[in-house]
Structure formats: C-alpha cells, structure tokens
Amino acid sequence: MRWTVKPKPTQENIDNLSKALGVDDLIAQLLIQRGITNYDEAKAFFRPELNQLHDPFLMKDMHKAVERIGQAMTNHENILVYGDYDVDGTTSVALMSSYLMETYPQVATYIPDRYLEGYGISFQGIDFAADNDISLIIALDCGIKAIDQIKYAKAKGIEVIVCDHHRPGNILPDAVAILDPKQKDCEYPYKELCGCGVGFKLIQALASKRGKTIDDLILYLDLVATAIAADIVPITGENRALAYYGLMVINENPRTGIKALIDQTKKRVLTITDVVFIIAPRINAAGRMKHGQHAVTLLTETDFAQAQQFASEIELFNTERRSLDQEITQEALVQIQENQEEDKFTSVVYNENWHKGVIGIVASRLTETYYRPTLVFTKSGDKLAASARSVKGFDIYNALEGCSDCLEQFGGHMYAAGLTLLEEQYEAFKTQFEKVVSETIDPKLLKPEISVDAKISMYQITPKLMRILKQFAPFGPGNMTPIFMAEGLKDTGYARGVGEGEKHLKCSLYQPGCNPIGGIGFNLGDKLDIVKGIKPFDAVFSLDENEWNGTVSLQLKLRDIR
Hints:
This protein has helices at 11-21, 25-33, 39-46, 62-74, 87-101, 123-131, 147-155, 195-209, 221-231, 237-252, 256-263, 272-289, 293-300, 304-338, 359-369, 396-401, 426-440, 463-470, 528-532, and strands at 2-5, 78-83, 107-110, 134-140, 159-163, 177-179, 347-350, 374-380, 383-389, 409-412, 416-421, 449-452, 454-455, 484-491, 496-498, 504-510, 517-521, 537-548, 551-561.
C-alpha cells in the first residue's frame, strides 16, 4: 500500500482562509485542498443551494428536446421512457416517467433485458415501440453510441431524444435531440452529471415552461442522489447540491419505494455511503438477477403495502446475487492461478456459464486481490460480453480504444466500461489488451494508493473537529472522506483480532501526552503484531463515530498501519 501525502497549501493561504471563516488551520487546509479558497466558496460548499444549479437550457439541444416533448403531448402521441438496467438507468426511468405522468397519461416505460438485449437501446425495444404505436422514445443513461438502432427507429417513424452522460464517439446518432454534457460542442458548465442528473435537467427545463421552479422538483431528488451515489460520479459542483438535498429527501420524505427498502434495514439516517452499500445494490439486483423493470415498478409505486411486497422480492434477488458473485469470484481467481497469470499487468477471465448480471461486481472483487485493470467475460447470445474495471489513475476506456479492432462495441468511463466481441476474437483481444496496458500504465499505479489529506497529532482529534468534518458530507469522488496520518503511535495493550477468523483489528491508540482513542481496522487483523510490538508505529485513518449502548464516541477508522 502506497501512502501519498497531499501537498500542504501555503501558510499564507491557510491563514487567510482560517481568518475569513473563523476555523483552525487544519479545517482551512482541508478546504483549500478541495478548491475552496474564500468565504463565498466555503458558504456554497457547506450550505449548497438549489439556486446554484445551472440553467438547463445551457445544455446543447435542450430547447429541441423540450419542444419535441411538448409537440408529442399536444398531438397525443405515445411516449416511451427507455433506460439502462442499472441503478442510474432505472432511477432515470422512474424519474422521467413519473414526472411526465403527472400531467400526461400516454407514457410507457422500457428497460432492456440484460441477457436477451444487452446494454442500451436495442432493436427489440424499438420493435416494442413500433408495435405499441409509440412515436417518441426518451432514452436515459444510454443512446450516445446507438447509431444503428436510432437509424432503425427513424425508419419506423420513431424519433429519439438521447439523455446520456457517457463519452460520445466520433459519430453521433441521428436523434431529434442529444443531451450529453460531454459533447465537445456542449457549453453546459458542469460535465459530470450522471444519467439521472441529465434526466433531471430535462424535467427542470420542462417544469420551467409550466411556470414551475426547482422547489417543485425536490421530491425527485431522492432518485437523483441514489444515482449519483451508485454511479460513483464526482460529488462536486452541481452533483454536490443535488446529492445534498437528495439525501435530505431520502432521510425525511423518500418516495414510497425507497422508504420500503430503507424499512428493511436498521438504518434510520442514511449517508451517501449507506446509499451505495444498502439502497443501490438492492435496486441493481433486480436488473442483475431478474429484470430491471422490477426496480422501476418499485420506484414508481405509491401504495406502501405493495411497495413492501416489491422490496421483499428485490431483497431475495439481492441475497441470490451475493451468493453468486462470491462463487464466481472464487472461480475467476482459480482461473488466473491455473493460467499462471498472477504477475501480468491485467486480469482477463472468461467462462461462458458465468451470470452476466454479476460480472461487473466480480471484476471489482478481482481488483481487490490483483490490483490491475480487469475484465470479466461471459457468453451473451452469439457473442462474449465483458465488464471492465480499472485502478486509480488509469483510463480503461482509452485502453479499450487501443484494442477497438478486436471489439464489436464498447462504451463507458475512465474506471468502468462494458464491451462485446466475437468469441474467435477473445484470445487476440486478451493479448492486445495486456500489450496496451503494459505499454501505457505507470507501474506505481499497480499498487493501491491511500491519499492522505494531512498529518495530524492525536490532540487535534476532538468532538468539535468531528462536528465540522460531518458538514463536509456528502462524500464521494472529488470530495472524499478526509484521511489523516499520525506518527509514533502506541496501543494501550487493548489490541486484538475480532470477527470471523480475527481478520479485523480492534485497538486503542495514543501518542505520549494524549488520551487514547479507540480504533477499528477492517481486514487489518494481519497488522496485530505491529500494533502489539514494542516499537511505535504510524497509521492512516478517517474519523468515525461509534455508538454503543446509547453512548457515542470518536473512533479511528484505520485504513493501514506500518
């Protein structure tokens, strides 16, 4: 594990911000590291306002999209809201369809079958639209690369509005409007919206034409916050404001379907992390194990008893998913060992029987063992489909571009992508991908990195510090939980292994002259000897609160020890 300490801002800048805000140097340092250098920026960070959101009409083609939807309603056309089967896609469909149906009943929803149709706009989906006299498709979280499919739709008299956030290719589809802030000629100021975020900008634009304001749309932000969390987009700028208010909705007045999911847990106040690990996997499980339409049905249900029934079914999908991804991960690890590929620059594995719904999770799991760009393939119809995952600092999308002659199609982001290829191309692709990565990756990126915000002394860890740090939330890419490093630590003698196989570490740490603070290190049980040894040691950690028998105390959430 590499520990990288972020550069400390100049003392002059720290002093200026500290004075302007009335905070200590440590808080000022953490804020400057997040690009916050003055009072107004700090106010926008700590107290996001929905009026900070950009005008949706700044997005290329927004006027066209609003005009076409208005035309469809005037002419009593049937509209199909189409989305991907993951969390971002299903929340997008729930958001758009429920908004339109407030005033317009002729709206249907469609989520492609992960196994029969695959990702994005499918020919089967267009045939469904044609068979049901649908003349307008609003595609969410997909469509930017659906050149042939949208051409096929047009030939059938169906127009498409694309709302996507993935990188466009060199050729754009012939859609009536393309909303994607990542288009080079799109001047929208914020580029990091998720698919549901782009969908929200569209309903914001539609609402403004009806004389409505952002306050009338707050009830949709639980869906947007869930998508932001699940899609791991930066929680900066506009995303921060959307996530901040979305979390409020989730915790105070969530829609019926999300409330039903929360009621199955013991959590009463959810953070972004809770959304990532509790809400998102359950919504995802529907598309992974059965069909994404189950998730849309849950998220648009208004009867609580019915929603509870849907939520319990999805809980079963999630339990099945967990068992399956653990099983396939073990099989993939064995395959790497049997092929003697432990020391390569990449992990590329394939089994035609692996469940397509969990290969993305398996790819993420493999990077925990072999920290390197990873692809997991399975059979999908007459082709092979894969999920790709990267490591911090390496653009896997660019690496796939370098292998495009072997691929049928691909799309995605810097750290996650999907692709298909012909089975006879698998070995050639595997060789080419290893070559591209080995020639382009910085070797240091193959070792996990912990980015440390600041070195601190134990006396600086106080309840006041914790109160302020909690106001830094919601955390995520672009605003990660602050990580601290402390040197010369010792244990009080309390240290021990806990959990199954004692794989976790429980301890109580101090520096000379400071009161001890309890610590928990998940999967750090192998560091027990260091902690119990005579020599002082260093640790990196975030700050957490531990509640026990009604008492809340500060706790170090240990990330590594040396």
